[in-house]
Amino acid sequence: MRLTQIRDFLAVVDAGSINAAARRLGVSQPGLTKSLGSLEEELGASLLKRSPTGVTLTALGRLFHVRVRAGYAELAKAQEELAREAKAQVALGFGPFFAAQVVPQAVLRWREKFPDVQLRLVEGLRHATGPMVRDASLDMSLAPRAPQGQDDPAIRFKPIAHLEQIVVARQGHPLAQARSAAALASQEWVSNLRRAATAEALRAIGAPEPRQVMECESFSTMSALLAGSDMLAIVQHPFLDMVLGMPQVDKALQQIPIAERLPGMTVGLHTRADAPLTRPAAALARLLAEIGRSLLQRQPPQS
C-alpha cells in the first residue's frame, strides 16, 4: 500500500466522484481508477460503490476511511514539519525584563546548534506578544502569567520561575527609608508591565492607588528614568542584579524596604495549545527555561 493510493482514495471520497477527484489532483481519470483498483486488490475488499452519479463508501470502505483519514493527516503534518525545519524559522517574543540577560544568553547558546535557522526576536509587553502567539506570528513568548481569570484557552503556559516583587528607587531618594507602601502612593511610578499592574500590586497590600503610572516597554529606559528622577517602580527581585554594569545606572538604584510583602509574579513561556513546537523552537524553549531559572530563581535582596 502506497501513500499515493491513500491520497487518491481520500480525494475520491471527498470529491464524491472519480472525475472530480482527478481534476483536483491534476491526474488522469484512468490513472486514478487504476490506483483505486490496485488498492482494493491489495486489501482484498471493495471500498467504493461506483454509479453514474458518483461514488459512495461500502461498509468496509467506511471503516477503512475512518482509520486512514486520521493517519494520513498525521503523516501530512509530519511532512509539513520536516519541510518547515528544512527552511526553519523561529520567532520569539519577550518582555523588557528578559531582554537584558535571559534572552541573549539563550540565543547565543542556541545558535551554536542551529546556526542556519532564521531567528526573529520581538520585544514587547505580554498584551502585545500574546496575540502574536495566538495567531502564530510568534512561536512563543517569554512573559508573566496572565492575571487570574484572564487565561486564554488557545495558549499553553509553562512556568519558569515565581518572582518576589520589590519597590526600587534612586539612591538618596527622599522616601528611601519609608517602611510602608502607603507613604509611597503619592509618588509618580514607572512600570515595565501594563499600567494597571502597579495599582493592582499596591491594592493587594492595602495601599492607596498610585497618583500616576508611566508605562515603559524599554528596560534600559525605565532604569535610566528611575536613576535620574524621584520615580518609583515595582519590579521583580532580580532587577537590581540586572542593572549592574549598565551605564549611568550601575549602583544608582536601591530597594525601598517596605514592611508589606508585595504579591509575587510567575513568569514563563506562552505557546499555542494546539500546535507542537518545531525542533529548533523546542530547543530554544528549553534553553530559555534553563537559563531563566538559573538567573531568576535567586533570593530577593535583604531589606
From TrEMBL:
Residues 1-58 form the HTH lysR-type domain. It comes from Sphaerotilus microaerophilus. Belongs to the LysR transcriptional regulatory family. Coiled coil: none annotated. This is HTH lysR-type domain-containing protein. Pfam families: HTH_1, LysR_substrate. Keywords: DNA-binding, Transcription, Transcription regulation.
